[in-house]
Amino acid sequence: MQDLTIAPGQGIPDGLVVAAADLSERFAKASGPGGQGVNTTDSKVQLSIDIAECASLSDTQRRRALHNLEHRLDGTVLTVSASTQRWQIRNRAEARERMATLLREAPAPPPPPRRKTKPTRGSVRRRLEAKKRRSELKSTRRKPRR
């Protein structure tokens, strides 16, 4: 297995190379297309990385990745599966792409806090005028009073 190269992103300004020793691959029988070979070949790929033990990430990147990916983690292990292709080699490439995408986006810093603003006088006036017009339009649909 080769090292996983991750392009520069918001939390990784210089990019990143995850050593092959930090990654683990497992293969299984995939469902779906494949004809007669679907029941005999292990084409599904599961690529895993233990984020807490990954030497390629700095402490800050590791902490942010663990926080941002907590809904996808099993403990501290991130697992990506790929089984859409008929060939194991293509599923391996797809799993590596998915893992790289997740690891590129995970250590991004949180967005800046929102500045509270209030609506402008003009927007408030326009909203109220639109409500008044709508009310008048709906009032013309009512049955006339006796």
From TrEMBL:
Per its UniProt record, what PANTHER family does this chain match? PEPTIDYL-TRNA HYDROLASE ARFB
What is the similarity comment for this entry?
Answer: Belongs to the prokaryotic/mitochondrial release factor family.
Stated EC number for the protein is 3.1.1.29
This protein's UniProt keywords: Hydrolase
Q: What is this protein called?
A: Peptide chain release factor I
Record bears the keyword Hydrolase:
yes
Q: Where do the record's region annotations for Disordered lie? A: 102-146
Any one Pfam family match given in the protein's UniProt record, by short name: RF-1
The beginning of the lineage is: Bacteria, Bacillati, Actinomycetota, Actinomycetes, Mycobacteriales
